[in-house]
Specification:
By secondary structure, the chain is an alpha/beta fold. The protein has a single domain (about 10-515), classed as FAD/NAD(P)-binding domain, CATH 3.50.50. It has eleven helices and 17 strands. It has helices at about 20-30, 55-60, 105-110, 125-140, 155-165, 210-215, 265-275, 350-355, 360-370, 415-430, 495-515, and strands at about 10-15, 35-40, 65-70, 170, 220-225, 225-235, 240-245, 250-255, 260, 300-305, 320-325, 340-345, 375-380, 390-400, 405-410, 440, 480. Helix 4 (about 125-140) packs across helix 11 (about 495-515) and helix 5 crosses helix 10. Bound molecules: flavin-adenine dinucleotide (FAD) and iron/sulfur cluster. Flavin-adenine dinucleotide binds near residues 39, 40, 91 and 482.
Length: about 525
């Protein structure tokens, strides 16, 4: 097992072992660059991963206090993981590219009141080869000749209803889940516990892929249960070390040459905001005042149909079902941006809590008794950047690390409300067209699962935090590799784009190190 000394100032430090951090770290290690990766969570062993959603929730979810305000859930505003593999242990593996026009949000949608819309600092052609690379690396079905997964009954209901509405772009999704054995990992067995970690490793998680590959290079050390709590710089404004809290409660520091932060938006933003100094009084990389602002998630709600026949939605791969017809930008619908409809299997306990919040007795039991007749989908739409949606630090409240508790403030933009109303109507009609006895909308009940935008990329340092490579404008050896750098979000799930950007960033960092520019 490779180990680097704590005073080794030639290493690249990567914070986080999830989709972004592990991909950057592995890409650098494969190029012979020494990397120390810090992960706040522990490494689960195969025997720790069980097909049980509530047990796994307790084992890998980030449960330290966060405060939600506005439309964000008050006690659990954001859902992500603290474990080796990060939230790729929990994700459902939908891996879609953003569309070219979504990278040009400001130019395409024009000025929308109370938004802070911008274009990405590069176009789709720049990102395309990295998408190719990411899909191939992750084994995404429906790309590179990789067969799609079969559809379960929940998919068949979605497909039949969508066709009745005239939709035609329907398939079992692009998933980073093996449809055939690939690179030492087995094919999906349709067990239906994708969010419990996929014990057989058919689903791409960095625990099974990037981390062991990086370890095999001899250029990578993973420090688990090691929470980075502070970042230090020298008098020239260059980052020189991080402070971290180990499982034994001791604070230590690690010297470094380059720092790359991939803590998944809330933690990335908190760490940088919480590292102020005389030189950087508003936090690191925050001379624009934009760090923490423009926080985006996606418009997200559930639609459930009580169908005339048995569905057994819990069987099979969670998200192997997608309708793409509403994905484009069509102002005729009365809003900007697109919508996806995706299958989802809500567990009985989730439905008991969230389907009809507050309902009691026959009203809810009459539905739950017919769990096997339920079909369900998520509706998923584009969110608009608003400067007032932000992540900030609580002025006095501290968590168990002694760090200020993050406050996640999010309010729906009127455009999002219009997307939601349209999408819920179409979602309900998909089930009604097949004779659903009842349909239900689950609105404002989910925490954010996709987080983006608090350290956006741009070429103008007065309105963005990072340059187009995710390098902080203010600090040349500080990089951000997670969804914080997204200037806009499209309607697609973000992780494929995060991985594509991480691969692109790793190439840049390696090139800059080779010429001693950083
Ligand atoms: C239920 C659910 C379903 C999802 N399904 C999909 C999907 O189908 N498709 C999709 O595209 N996306 C999906 N996502 C989102 C996806 O999981 C994330 O986009 C992705 O994992 C983000 O990668 P990341 O590296 O930024 O963060 P993560 O994967 O969350 O990794 C961040 C890691 O950093 C560690 N960390 C944070 N701060 C520190 C610190 N200070 N010191 C040390 N370690 C730290 C954390 O412990 C964590 O392990 C889903 C998310 C959820 C919750
Ligand atoms: S359905 Fe497939 S991807 Fe999901 S847990 Fe089972 S084997 Fe893994």
């Amino acid at each position: 097992m490779t180990k680097f000394s704590r005073d080794n100032s030639s290493v690249v430090v990567v914070i986080g072992s999830g989709a972004s951090g592990a991909v950057v770290a592995n890409s650098l290690a494969q190029r012979g660059i020494d990397v120390v990766c810090f992960e706040a969570g522990r490494r689960l062993l195969p025997q720790d991963i069980v097909n049980d959603e509530s047990k796994m929730f307790g084992r890998f979810t980030w449960l330290d206090e966060r405060i939600g305000s506005g439309n964000a859930l008050a006690n659990f505003p954001v859902w992500n993981c603290k474990t080796v593999g990060g939230t790729t242990m929990h994700w459902t593996a939908t891996s879609l590219r953003m569309q070219p026009h979504e990278l040009q949000a400001r130019s395409t949608y024009g000025e929308i009141e109370n938004t802070n819309l911008v274009d990405w600092p590069f176009d789709y052609a720049e990102l395309e080869p990295w998408y190719e690379n990411a899909e191939s690396r992750m084994g995404v079905t429906g790309t590179h000749g990789i067969a799609r997964l079969p559809g379960n009954n929940n998919y068949k209901v979605l497909e039949a209803g969508a066709r009745k509405l005239g939709y035609s772009q329907i398939n079992t999704n692009n998933l980073a889940i093996n449809s055939k054995q690939r690179e030492g990992r087995p094919a999906c067995l349709q067990l239906g516990f994708c969010t419990s970690g996929c014990v057989i490793g058919a689903k791409w998680s960095t625990l099974y892929t990037e981390i062991p590959q990086a370890e095999a290079t001899g250029h990578f050390e993973l420090r688990t249960e090691s929470m980075v709590v502070g970042v230090r710089h020298n008098t020239k404004g260059k980052i020189v070390a991080v402070d971290y809290l180990g499982a034994d409660g001791q604070i230590r520091s690690q010297s470094l040459r380059v720092l790359i932060v991939g803590g998944n938006v809330v933690e990335t933003t908190r760490l940088l905001l919480n590292s102020p100094s005389r030189m950087f009084p508003e936090g690191l990389a925050n001379s624009s005042g934009m760090l923490g602002k423009n926080y985006m998630r996606h418009v997200l709600a559930g639609v459930v149909g009580l169908m005339p026949g048995q569905v057994n939605l819990h069987r099979g791969t969670h998200q192997a079902g997608l309708v793409m017809d509403e994905r484009g930008h069509d102002p005729q619908r009365g809003f900007a941006g697109g919508i996806l409809f995706l299958t989802v299997p809500f567990a009985p306990d989730t439905l008991a809590r969230l389907l009809l919040p507050g309902a009691w007795g026959d009203r809810i039991t009459s539905v739950l008794e017919r769990y096997d007749h339920l079909a369900a989908m998520l509706v998923h739409g584009e969110d608009m950047a608003q400067e007032s949606n932000m992540i900030s630090l609580h002025p006095s409240r501290k968590d168990r690390y002694g760090l200020p508790v993050p406050i996640i403030h999010y309010e729906d933009h009127p455009n999002s409300k219009r997307i939601l109303s349209y999408a819920l109507d179409r979602g309900r009609k998909i089930y009604e067209s097949l004779g659903a006895e009842q349909t239900f909308a689950m609105v404002d009940v989910f925490p954010a699962t996709h987080n983006m935008g608090t350290a956006r990329m741009g070429t103008d340092a007065s309105i963005s935090v990072c340059n187009p490579r995710g390098q902080a404008h203010d600090i040349e050896n500080l990089f951000i590799c997670d969804g914080s750098v997204f200037p806009s979000v499209g309607c697609e799930n973000p992780t494929l784009t995060i991985v594509a950007l991480a691969l692109r960033q790793a190439e840049y960092v390696a090139g800059q190190m080779a010429i001693n520019a950083i």
